[in-house]
Amino acid sequence: MFSGLRASFLTGLVVIAPVALTIWLLWTLMGWVDSFVLPLIPSNLRPERYIGINLRGVGVIIFLIFTILVGWIAKGLIGKSLIRFAESLVNRMPVVRSIYSGVKQIAETVFAQSERSFEKACLVQYPRKDIWAVGFISTAAKGEVNAKAQTGSDLLSVFVPTTPNPTSGFLLFFPREDVIELDMSVEDAAKLVISAGLVYPGEVKPDDPRLKRKS
């Protein structure tokens, strides 16, 4: 009886924990954005002045509208001219220039458009032969890197992530024939890395009806 209750409790945790953590993270994120955005809004324009309660998430909506508006302006001729002028001023400030360029590179990498995302998931032998690691093919190596590498074929630039944090890792260059492309998507490969090999894409569970049909 105790074993049955324990199993049911653990099953309940597996169901509840992801939902609860997701809701908590979203709720916390909305509160964090509100704490930054709402103080910038004049008190006579805040929603709670008219409805009597402080609605969480209003700051997120204001931030989204403001960000879309800035992006729309930045795509135009006037916006591009203003950005170039502002960056020319920043480039004249020694310390600020370094901080701005670093943050800009990170933002461009994180929020890059789909055409600059990883192309395929792959397997490579790293850190030595017969040890396999999951990697992500970014693009074919170009310029001096590909020209001066002493290989018989072109190189592929592969990002090999660390576990459980896939945002850190190593940029490695492999000959094209040494890279084995995987059929799984980049998202599924990322799940495999984050879970430390516990979550496999397309994995069939023991109680899956497909196993019974095969048997």
In short:
The protein contains 8 helices and 5 strands, in the order αααααββαβββαα.
Q: Averaged pLDDT, please? A: 82
Biggest β-sheet strands, sense, barrel: 5 strands, antiparallel
How many DSSP helices?
8
Helical coverage, percent range: 40-55%
Spatial strand arrangement across the major sheet: 4-3-2-1-5
SSE topology string? HHHHHEEHEEEHH
User: What is the third-level CATH name, the topology of the domain at 115-194?
Assistant: SH3 type barrels
Q: Which residues sit in consecutive blocks of at least 5 with pLDDT less than 50? A: 210-215
Coarse structural class: alpha+beta
What this model shows, in words?
By secondary structure, this protein is an alpha+beta fold. It has a domain of 80 residues: SH3 type barrels (Roll). Helix content is 51%, strand content 14%. It has eight helices and five strands, in the order αααααββαβββαα. It has a five-stranded antiparallel beta sheet with strand order 4-3-2-1-5, covered by helices on one side. A hairpin with a 7-residue loop joins β3 and β4. α3 packs across α4. It is flat, with a radius of gyration of 25 Å. The two termini are 32 Å apart.
